[in-house]
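Batch job 17 of 40 flagged for manual review because the log was empty.
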Amino acid sequence: MLNELRCEACSKDSIALSETERQSLILELDNWVIVERDGIPQLEKVFKFKNYKQAWHFSNQVSELAEQEFHHPSILLEWGKVTVTWWSHSIKGLHKNDFICAAKCDEFAGQ
């Protein structure tokens, strides 16, 4: 399972996942979508909460995960809603690390 894995070091020499690999991995996630911005595929999900404090708490959990895995997403915190977007900046695409971190975000949201 993705949420049990750890991120591996990713550099500009790493290879982005192919379309087939991305489509296979996204099947292991819950309601994440692949969006493309400026030609870069990104993994994104909107999480909904009852209030700002719960959304803030979730954002902090994602931030702590990012530091632990040394892999950092875009996090948009709003009242009752957090949008998390993962992609690998160094390769301008998606890496398995993005899917690992997405799976871990789903665990936080379920708590």
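Reviewer: the log was empty due to a logging misconfiguration, but the result itself is present. The CA atoms of residues 16 and 95 lie 5 Å apart. Unflagging and moving on to job 18.
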